[in-house]
Design a protein that fits this description.
UDP N-Acetylglucosamine Acyltransferase, domain 1, 2 domains, alpha/beta, eleven-stranded mixed beta sheet, 280 residues, 5 helices, 16% helix
Length: 280
Amino acid sequence: MDAIASSIMIHPAAYVAPGARIGAGCRIGPGCVISADAVLGEDVQLASHVVIDGRVTLGDGVKVSPFVTIGLPPQDLKYSGEPASVEIGARTQIREHVTIHRGSVGGHGVTRIGADCLLMCVVHVGHDCLIGNGVVLVNNTMLAGHVEIGDHAVISGGVAVQQFVRIGHMAMIAGMSGVERNVLPYARAKGFRAKHYGLNTIAMRRRLGLSKDRVMAMARVVHDLYRGGRPEDNVEALAALHADDALVLEILDFARSRGRHGLIPFGRSSPEDEDSGEAA
């Protein structure tokens, strides 16, 4: 017997379609159904009753809990079976009852989740979502189609994100928020109709090693960006003032690319209490 094949453990009550590519060290539990177009990297673990449907690629070390479905057709009335896929990066953990739908021809054709992410119970990732590395989606998060989330963002429990919304790098969304517009990198947002409530200061200081004064300076730039209620009117002037500051330019570049929705409104009159930010 081939050494790689002998390292794979597939429960007798699982079904793996001919043609599926299963990497060394994979563990596939009872009740799992794996499609012919699936590609599982090394050491992937499917606990039990996991459905992998269509063109799905799981990176090395991905762990999937019971009753997860990955790659089912998008909830899009325009979809009529065209080729589309799901790609999930290495070491990502997917907990119970998560649903991840394949892409669509009206979008990227792929739903992509990065490496080292954590998707907690009952998360839904809609078609054509693009999720970065190290992202945490807490229980009952709902992402509509075409949502984009930057690296190391944290989306708390019960958050609903509208289609085509972009959430920036290391942003943090408070639980039970409704996100209808784009959220800047490093921002904190909350509310039934989410607003900007400062920066994710603790995460910035811990992960990036920034000083309190440095974070406060960035917060003042964001305050100036929103001055007058029209960020698009202030982007270029601020970019000229901070041309040598890569972190500020990251925020301004994001603001410059409005997409379909523009930015969430500002929810605070002053940036002076930015250091009350939550950890991520």
